[in-house]
Amino acid sequence: MPPGFRRHFVCWRPPDRERPAANEVEKTAKIDYNERNNVRTGLIEAPHGEVTFMKVLMLNGSPKPNGNTGLALKEMEKIFAAEGIEVETIVVGNKDIRGCVSCGSCGRLGRCVFDDMVNEIAPKLAECDGLVIASPVYYASANATLIACLDRLFYSNRADLSMKVGASVVVARRGGCSATYDELNKYFTISGMPVASSQYWNSVHGGVPGEASQDAEGMQTMRVLARNMAFLMKSIALGKQEYGLPEKEQHLWTNFV
Ligand SMILES: Cc1cc2nc3c(=O)[nH]c(=O)nc-3n(C[C@H](O)[C@H](O)[C@H](O)COP(=O)(O)O)c2cc1C
After folding, report:
1. Which numbered atom of ligand 1 lies nearest the CA of 173?
2. 126 assigned to some structural domain
3. Is the residue at 155 inside a domain?
4. What single DSSP character describes residue 139?
5. For the segment 153-193, what is each residue's pLDDT rounded down to a tens digit?
């Protein structure tokens, strides 16, 4: 796909997959809606026929790929798969990622001076249509490795993130969820990224790995979040096609003076 293609041209085509079983009422209704509106969820077709799927990038801040945070993300993945949206999950919490040293080299290099996983994630961030940031709660805050990664990723990033949909997910045994949720959402809301929400703040509870699967409400919150995020991503793709991205102003840096 030519660089910048998605920004300029997004064409949707109606579904050619088989109709779902009659008992999948919700799905049928959605497909009927899509057919009427000539929209196929998650599929982008280029003028020359090349077809790609919309993509969600998921960053898992837990050191345990199959821990409770992983379970919450897997619940979302199922919905994205049903929506025809591609998912890439990167486990960040078990990597050796140092914090930002405020050297400013990224302004010159266009990437972080520490050439580690952060620079591998950067092009994936530039390419994705949606970003999920997930973290276990540590002392009522996000995992420190994840924060080191996000600070350097967002600070060194040169791609336009505006109108990529963001969602944060937090997992705790008992407390500190909403503080961590607020912490993670800050990366989206300073970047022009609309934030997808669910039926509750996006938290799941569990202590030992696997326990989160018992949190029925938390898992439902994840499914609803993924559906809402998919809807927002589709809607924004159509909106871009119809109206284009909002006009940009040159950023003024006033340091409160
Ligand atoms: C260093 C550390 C600090 C933690 N702090 C909290 C906390 O503040 N609140 C809480 O409810 N759970 C806390 N926990 C528990 C984890 O959030 C919980 O076990 C979570 O399910 C881990 O997710 P994971 O399996 O994806 O790693 C802490 C765990 C660790 C290792």
Report:
1. 11
2. yes
3. yes
4. T
5. 999 999 999 999 999 999 999 999 999 999 999 999 999 99
